[in-house]
Model the fold of this input.
Amino acid sequence: MHSRIRTTIYLLVSLLLLLLFAPLPGYGDSDKNGGSQPVDLVLRKVTVTPVRVHVGDVVRVEMEWDYWGDIFAENRYDTNMAAVRANGKVVASKTYTADFGGLSPGDTCRETFLWNTTGMAPGEYRIRGEVPVIQDKTHYDNYLDVKEPLLLVPAGVSFPDGKERGGEAVAESPY
Done:
């Protein structure tokens, strides 16, 4: 009799532990077909225009990113901050809410950021686009660094080498 009670207790404790430590459904646990994929967002492209500007000009930064993985299966929302950095400082940003229930894997989102350079010091600026997702399993593909620096000169000053205002720099994801 005691062995039956002991066996029953062991089974109940095992079942309780299994229920307590089993993974809960949520972000990235299963896709629409019952499979499992991690949350993923990939920043595909950052375009900066113009790359030769005077202090006070507005720089346009276009970013494109794709949603992959299973961040959309549970009809969840995730609010994040997409940002443009110049030499490490955030110069333009937007809060975005990813409506994961309304997206399908591979859907592309596009955002435009405007950086008003008024008050910025003249010089070269390295531009980085960032679109983080908190639940993302691969953060290395949530940012892109533009290789060509942006040149900012004082208002009324000519650009070096006889160049004019303008130009474009693009960074594209290798992933």
About this structure: The chain has one domain: 3-172. Confidence is low (pLDDT under 50) at residues 23-36. The radius of gyration is 24 Å.
